[in-house]
Amino acid sequence: MEEKKKKIFKKWWFWVIIIIILAGIAGNGNSNNNTSTENISTTSTKATDSIETIEPNTSKMVDHLIRKAKNDSNSITEEQKNVALDFIKNNVDNLFKDNKTMEDAIYYGALLEYSCNDNLKELGMDTVQAVKYVYRNVEKIEDISTQENLKQITKNLNSLQ
Length: 161
Fold this sequence. Notes:
The protein starts with a helix and ends with a helix. The chain is 78% helix and 0% strand. The chain has 161 residues and is mostly helical. The chain has helices spanning 2-10, 12-48, 59-72, 78-91, 99-115, 119-135, 144-160. The protein is built from seven helices and no strands. The longest helix is centred in the first third of the chain and has 37 residues, at 12-48. Helix 3 (59-72) packs across helix 5 (99-115) and helix 5 (99-115) packs antiparallel against helix 6.
């Protein structure tokens, strides 16, 4: 009997089966843990994060501002659309003045993008694109893509007049 057990442990297929079983157990455990962590962090972000607790100049802040604008776009009034449009008009030459201005530009741009279906949507989308990368320090104001988005903002503003 002892001899038979030793032969089983020497067979390569025995070890392959053991490895597959262990990998399966480890894989299931990791995917369940990742899923629940992901769900907790998503819920946590939506429920408890306020703009004061999110670090500025991060993707998390950009996502927060866009998510807020998207939620607010469901019940936007014409007056609120006009406030967003006026903000962009009045700040088009100073969109990168400071963090507050960039955050407002991202919010108002996203608000127009998600609530309109015309040139205002394009204006909002271009505003978000122009500002969000500079805000996160991924691009500079002088970069070609930022300058192209600024040209599009000006073009959209001119078409609205």
